[in-house]
Design goal:
The chain is α/β, with parallel strands linked by helices and 288 residues long. It has a single domain, classed as Rossmann fold, CATH 3.40.50.300. It contains ten helices and eleven strands. It has a five-stranded parallel sheet, sandwiched between helices. Strand 9, helix 10 and strand 10 form a beta-alpha-beta unit. Helix 8 crosses helix 9. The protein is globular. The two termini are 34 Å apart.
Amino acid sequence: MASEENTGAGASEATGETVGASEATGETVGASEATGETVGASEATGEAGDTQDEQEAESPQDTADSPSDTASAPALITAAGLGVDGEHGPLFSGIDLELSSGFHAIQMPGGPGQTALLLTIAGRYKPSHGTLTVLGDTGPRAIRKHCAIAAFDDIDELDESVKVKTVLAEQRRWLAPWYSRVPLDAGQVELDLVFGEIAPPSPDTFIVELSDLELFLLRITLALLSGRPILVVGDLEQVRDVARRAVAVERLGAIATRFTVIVGVTNPLGTEAPDHGLHDHRTLNGKD
């Protein structure tokens, strides 16, 4: 594994990991574009790296969208003065967070700053400043064992020329012990959880034929196959249609009844969204 040290910025400025594409889900990843730290794709997405290695106060800017029981629950994730520096300056800085179990939306402008914060929380970037604790662990490698990630450009992108059944089977195969057989319906339980009452894509559907919502949910399905308790999801705005985005929010809320879910947002989720905590860090993204 490459060094945990920060190395560059951008989407090329950010200080995280680059992903080997062939290892996980039929992913096509532009390795040098995303980050400065090299990791197998499964480890970057929370999919299998650690299985292979080891079998191995919300800030003042946070708003009160979260339900009262969430506010009183013990924090799973805490950050104080958290920041990551890029090649041309800070990507974000001065972030304080206390996240309990449930559904959380982190509001920042879309782009490198939001991506860097989410991936830092998931243990894919090493902080330049401040402290981060996730389920009692403070080092990026240890934090990765708790966090799966989904829907990040250049990290868990899928090859458009393969079928849904192929990426599900490959992901299951990557996660399974070497001596086990992977059934043809691999991933069906997770697919049902993520899609809920929405009809999931046919196993023979090519990735290129999926809508942005279906692709978003499929990438989440692949991440959840790791069984890690925390799911960190990239910018919700990648689901471009407002109505479909509302469906994505509803599905994230349902998933949050079983996993802790953290998603990046540009705008608040609104009053119709499932119970969630909204954490407004628009002025703490290292650009002000």
